[in-house]
Amino acid sequence: MKKFKRGITVALVFICILTIAAANAAAQQKAAEQKIVLRVQSAFAAVLPALGECLPLFKEWVDAASDGTIEVKYFDPGKLVPPFEIHDAVSSGKIEAGYTAPVYLAGKLPSTELFTYIPFGVDAPAYIGWFYSGNGMKLYQEAYDSAGYKIKPFLFTMLAPETAGWFRKAINKQEDLKGMAIRYPGLPGKVLQKLGASISMVPGSEIYQSLEKGAIDGTEFSNPAIDQKLGFFKVAKFNYFPGWHQPATHLELVINKDTWEKMSPRQKAVIELAVRAVTTYTLGRSSAVQGAAIVENAKAGVTNAVFSPEMLDLFKKTWLAVIEEETAKDPMLKKIWDDYKAYEASYTPWACIGYLPKPECK
């Protein structure tokens, strides 16, 4: 019995020594780490469901998991720099980080657009698969590097399908689009432009005023719950579905490369884990809240309209013409598009039998 008690005592002492050693090692590691302050300029208001409310969560998770060695400070749109200037500000080191959309850089770097959405593309889980299990992340970084941007991009917010847009009048045929002034992004905007619309890209914070004043006749922005917060239902009574232009929407966290390289391996791991948590949270959250918003919009006099098969066929045919034209002009865009198409082809056999029947699977 004495030997047994002596063994227990030795074991407890050994455990205490290991615990103290681990605590000392953790303290030494923390002391060796530089305090990193991430000023995150957001392009999206923190009050928006999923889209913006993920930032307080990201801050909470990073602050806690880093044991205070990373401090996240996020700023609503325009507080530090305008939404369309976030990439340049992060790259130059003016700010350490930004939360924005790759498409906001499409005027300077068209190849980034396919990292925001792919018209008539795969759904969100499969889109994430391209980033992490395909070549998506590698090409994503390459696109920024090749253009000289000192940016470390992260897959961040992933949203459920968008609506195809809010319009002042019904759209039943191509002629209905002719002469309309519509806020629509990048490549999908070129689709509507080919079909006769006049396209502009207005920052999210200015869309309502543009609709209210009649500067635009229609807009897309996000999905019903987010659009509802922005009040589009008050000035545009036709909300169209499905969101052919954005079956899944990705919005990014970008960190200045010098800031990223200053981080310890532990700090980098904290960021990596936190952004993946945001991706999971936002995909679930943005899917869960749409039904109620659709019902409430209908009560406010909105027609939740569905494009006819003929209109969707027209959009798809025009999209394929647009992407063929644009990839012929931009080698990096073509490289990304070709890689995505190869990934989609490898995914399709599963997509067509693993889920309930899809009309495109024959």
Brief summary of the model shown:
The chain is α/β, with parallel strands linked by helices. It has 13 helices and eleven strands. Strand 1 (36-42), helix 2 and strand 2 form a beta-alpha-beta unit.
Provide an overview of this structure.
The protein is α/β, with parallel strands linked by helices. It folds into 2 domains: 35-161 and 248-288, D-Maltodextrin-Binding Protein, domain 2; 165-243 and 302-329, D-Maltodextrin-Binding Protein, domain 2. The protein is 49% helix and 15% strand. The chain has 13 helices and 11 strands. The chain has helices spanning 2-32, 54-65, 86-92, 124-133, 136-146, 186-194, 207-212, 224-229, 257-262, 265-288, 290-299, 309-329, 331-354; strands spanning 36-42, 70-75, 97-100, 151-159, 165-167, 181-183, 198-200, 218-219, 238-241, 249-256, 303-306. Strands 7-6-8-5-9-11 form a 6-stranded mixed sheet. It has a 5-stranded mixed sheet with strand order 2-1-3-10-4, sandwiched between helices. α2 (54-65) links the parallel β1 (36-42) and β2 (70-75). The longest helix is centred in the first third of the chain and has 31 residues, at 2-32. The model is unreliable at 10-14 and 16-29 (pLDDT under 50).
